[in-house]
Amino acid sequence: MNQKNTNTVSKFLSLVLRHQPELIGIELDNEGWVDVATLISQVNAHGTPLDMALLERVVETNSKKRFAFDEGKGRIRASQGHSVAVELGYEPQTPPEILFHGTTERFLNSILSTGLEKRQRQHVHLSQDHATAMQVGARHGKPFILTVLAAEMHAAGHVFYLSANNVWLTDHVPVQYLKYLPEIL
Ligand code: HQG
Question: For the whole model, what pTM was predicted?
Answer without folding.
Answer: 0.93
